[in-house]
Amino acid sequence: AGGVESSAASVEQESRVSRIRIIAAAAALALAAGSAVAQDTDSAPPSADQVARELSNPVGSLASLVFQGNYAQLGGSAPGVSDQSSTSLVFLPTLPFKLGSGNLTLRPSFPVVGAPTLSAPGQWDKVRGFGDIVLLGLWGRKEESGLLWGGGATTVFPTASEEATGSGQWQAGPAALVGLLKQWGVVGALWQHWYGLNSDPGEEKISKGTLQLFYWFSLAGGWQVGGSPIPTANYLGATTEFSVPINLGVAKTFVLGSTPMKTTLQGQYFLTRPDVAGPDWGFFFQITPVVKAPW
Question: What is Dmax (Cα atoms) for the chain?
Answer without folding.
Answer: 70
